[in-house]
Amino acid sequence: MNIHRKRRRGSNAIEFALTLPLFLLLLSAVMDFSWYFFTTWRLSASLREGARIGSVTPNADDPVSTAEDEAEDRGVGYGLVWTTVPVGVVVDNPPQRRMELSGTVEVTKLIGLVPMPTVATSTVVIRLEDQTVAITSTSTN
């Protein structure tokens, strides 16, 4: 038994040396992709909050600007670096008026051994609460 044990003495170190780079590559990939998904979650959360605030803002107070400002402030609070600040548009006519809010942020790599996207983009669509339209009267004389 001692003869067999002596022949396999260095095999554990060799196996460890062969598998360590693969393990580190896998570990760095998991960390980088987790960071990417966490960044996209923060982006989506800031856009959702901005859209939620904008959706309950009356038309007279410009819900799109309110949503854009709130989303940008929330993103800065989450530590995001905006590539393009949130942009909102109102689409359709009452009673289906809705706001689309989009934004793009930079994604920094934690380790950088694995190719990753450098930006994350998200779009949030929400129905506006105030569905009224300004009625203009025209007189015919």
DSSP strand (E) fraction? Answer: 15-25%
Give the class from helix and strand content and strand pairing.
alpha+beta
Shape, please? rod-shaped
Mean pLDDT: 87
The profile of the biggest β sheet is:
3 strands, antiparallel
Number of helices: 3
State the domain count: 1
Tell me the series of helices and strands, N- to C-terminal: HHHEEE
Biggest sheet strand order reads: 1-2-3
- The percent range for helix content is 40-55%
How many β-strands, per DSSP?
Answer: 3
The stretches of 5 or more residues where confidence is low (pLDDT under 50) are none
Q: What is the alpha-carbon Rg in Å?
A: 27 Å
Distance between the terminal alpha carbons, to the nearest Å? Answer: 115 Å
List descriptors.
141 residues; alpha+beta; three-stranded antiparallel β-sheet; 3 strands; 47% helix
